Amino acid sequence: MNDEGILQLFARPWAIEPSALRLIVESVVNVTKGTEPAAAKTASRGTSAGSEAAAGDFGGSGRPFRLEGSTAVIPIEGTISKRLSPIFAFFFGGTSVESVRTALQAAEADDQVERILLDIDSPGGSVNGISDLADEIRATSKPVIAYSDGLMASAAYWLGVAADQVFASAASQVGSIGVLAVVDDISVALHNHGIKTTIIKAGEHKAAGHPDQPFTEKDREVIQEEVNDFYELFTGAVGRFRSMSRDDVLSAADGRVFIGSKALEKGLIDGIRSRGELGVMLADNETGVTTMKEKQAKAEAAEQERLEAEEAEKVKAEEQAKAEAAARAKEVDAGGLDEEALKLKAREEERERLCALDAIATDWPSHKELVDQCKADGTSAEETKQLVFAAATKLNRAELAAARKGEEEPLGGGNTDHEAKAFSEEAVKERWEAGDTYLHRYYSDVNQAIRYERAKHGAAQQRAQA
Question: 3-class SS at 272?
Fold first, then answer.
């Protein structure tokens, strides 16, 4: 890969300590030029544990993790990438997402493993595959503990925070919650050397951040949007896994790393432990780790218990209120002068009146203002219904009174022939299906027409008898 290709690679989002990313960029460029001393190459290969993890075998055990007692230890060291290429691994060491996933799945399936320890010393790395792996860590049925006595930063913390519990030493560095991309614009340098690069592309933003072309404000917006998207994923995971509010997460998600106790204050870890103290805890099985599945089950059970208790209290209160109302009504019926019972009865009647008026307003939404006025005036449900009929047939209160006395046409806007006959639900249906102008004008559907035509007919009969 040429220098330009390397620089464009690092223009993609990374969740890593900035100083570590710059060191990698410079080292990769130097290696491709053959200018890095061989000693430096050898020194940067990483630990033997990292090499064993990449090979999928620890100490010839056939396991992709180190088994200490009943604890599966999975090291996450150096720069994290989705797949660790042989060249990158040779010069820089590091850990791949795929190797951690393989070790995690093997530990989950191993009957000798009771818990899993993520042993982290990493500045972070590429964001590719990190979110999915973090979700897999949290979904593991066996307890998972994350620990660092060095550096647990950025993508490394993204993985560590997914554990059921997170511990760090007093001098460890934890956090660096953030995402970055590094864009090098070498177009001017190429121009000064008489080199002109032409990029042929399909897609407006295909070459955004390419080092051979000037870096435009539009390129910045495109890459910034991608960085922001990964930042939202990262901070969302921290909030979800640590049960932190959005504000608390953002107070710690400004890219800083925090020394042990500060990380604890920020809520990023569960406790301060030396490696020896952690070893004792694991050996004595005193971590007290509760897996996420167990936490969720307990939380759901507690929530269900709370809801059931609230419902029981509600039912109890309703039954008590009904019993008290019945007792007071009985006293009133027996001739007593219980003032509280009378008030209770009046409140119940008022509630029933308002409910009836709400039903009328629902059936006649265009006359809601009239119904609201009837509510305020204390008008009964029956009288309100008649007033709504009057409004619907363009009658005012005076015309309604006249209609009641037989001085004007009965309610219905001149449908005397229909009212004079015995009410027939089938007749209303036939009129509706025949497209009766009156019915379709004042009723929204045939059921409403039947209901109110029946009520009108009853009212007309009562007027006739009066």
Answer: strand
Residue with tokens 């901070």: 235
d(CA 282, CA 270): 15
Nearest to 44 by CA among 62, 59, 26: 26
Q: What value does the CA radius of gyration of the chain take, rounded to a whole number of Å?
A: 39
d(Cα 158, Cα 166) in Å, to the nearest integer? 11
Give the DSSP H/E element, type plus range, for residue 116. Answer: strand 115-126
- Contact present, 108 and 141 (Cβ < 8 Å): yes
Tokens (6 digits) for 385: 């219904």
pTM, two decimals, is: 0.55
Q: Are strands 66-68 and 71-81 parallel, antiparallel or unpaired?
A: antiparallel
Residue in this structure with the two tokens 């007290």, named with its chain if needed? 288
> What tens digit of pLDDT does each residue of 431-463 get?
888 888 777 766 778 887 787 777 777 766 766
Residue type, 379: T
**What's the farthest any 2 CA atoms get from each other in the chain?**
116
Q: 67, 113 in Cβ contact below 8 A?
A: yes
How far is 134 from 315, CA to CA, in rounded Å? 44
Sole residue written with tokens 């925070």: 161
- The DSSP line for 296-335 is HHHHHHHHHHHHHHHHHHHHHHHHHHHHHHHHHHHHHHTT
CA distance 144 to 270: 13
pLDDT in tens, 358-386: 888 888 888 888 888 888 888 888 888 88
As a whole number of angstroms, the distance between CA 171 and CA 379 comes to 77
- For 161, the 3-state DSSP assignment is coil
Every domain of the chain and the residues it spans: 3-289, 292-337, 338-465
Fold category of 3-289 in CATH: 2-enoyl-CoA Hydratase; Chain A, domain 1 (3.90.226)
State the Cα–Cα distance between residues 312 and 314, nearest whole angstrom.
Answer: 5
